[in-house]
Design goal:
single chain; about 250 residues; alpha+beta; Arc Repressor Mutant, subunit A; 2 domains; 3-stranded antiparallel β-sheet; about 20% strand
Length: about 250
């Protein structure tokens, strides 16, 4: 069994199984506070709603929909997009298993982005009014939710920094390193992974043309920094890739 098969096997575990609970999900170390007691996990699990998986291209929610829930990605991947007044789509983020979407609706009680499945994806829906009630009863859960909000703000700041980088190579290197570190949080390989998003989505997110994205991937591969097989990525030289991301190329 090669590395990519191992990764897929790990991701397949409890991926789209609706019988998964917060207690036995392999992502609970990411989603839940470490100090949460078993009985509190059961209380949280009682408010979580698990519907059938989203198929590629399906919407989890749309901009201007009434805000009522936040969503934890259990498997697959989704993208968040905003639509300009002219109807142009701007990708504002990619979310992987163990990450939470929907907090863009907190400020005005309507979602400001639309969230779309990049591939078959399972989500846990957490009604926000029930989460608020439970958070008041479980202080560690409330603190954890504040930490998730902080992480969301930090990620937004990182996106702004990413888009301000002058080098196309730096932008793509930063994206690859971001996915690598996020895989590490799920105890998956940080060197071998699958990019769930298309080259078009990557270009849209990074402010680059698809031709530039393809050219940079080819250049990084010819420099023996990464190996590319369709959507499968292998990072060969992590240190040099970090140097590029930091503008030291």
């Amino acid at each position: 069994m090669n590395n990519m098969q191992i990764i897929k096997t790990q991701d397949a575990h409890c991926a789209h199984d609706k019988r998964v609970s917060c207690g036995n999900c392999r992502l609970n170390a990411i989603c839940l506070p470490i100090s949460l007691h078993v009985e509190d996990i059961d209380r949280l699990n009682s408010i979580v709603q698990r519907s059938k998986p989203l198929q590629k291209g399906e919407y989890l929610y749309r901009a201007s929909d009434e805000f009522d829930s936040v969503f934890a990605i259990r498997s697959g991947a989704v993208k968040a997009v905003s639509i300009s007044d002219k109807g142009d789509e701007q990708v504002t983020g990619f979310y992987l298993p163990g990450e939470v979407v929907g907090m863009d609706g907190l400020a005005d009680n309507v979602y400001t982005n639309s969230v779309i499945a990049l591939e078959t994806s399972s989500v846990c829906e957490i009604p926000f009014n029930r989460l608020e009630e439970l958070s008041l009863q479980i202080p560690t859960l409330q603190r954890h939710f504040f930490q998730l909000m902080s992480r969301e703000i930090t990620q937004d700041q990182q996106v702004i920094t990413l888009l301000s980088k002058g080098s196309a190579e730096a932008r793509i290197a930063t994206l690859l390193l971001s996915i690598s570190s996020r895989n590490g949080r799920r105890n998956l390989s940080t060197n071998d992974f699958i990019l769930p998003m298309s080259r078009t989505d990557i270009g849209n997110f990074l402010g680059l043309t698809i031709e530039t994205v393809s050219r940079i991937f080819t250049r990084l591969q010819k420099s023996n920094l990464i190996a590319v097989d369709k959507k499968e990525i292998t990072i060969i030289d992590m240190e040099v890739l970090r140097n590029i991301a930091n503008g030291n190329d």
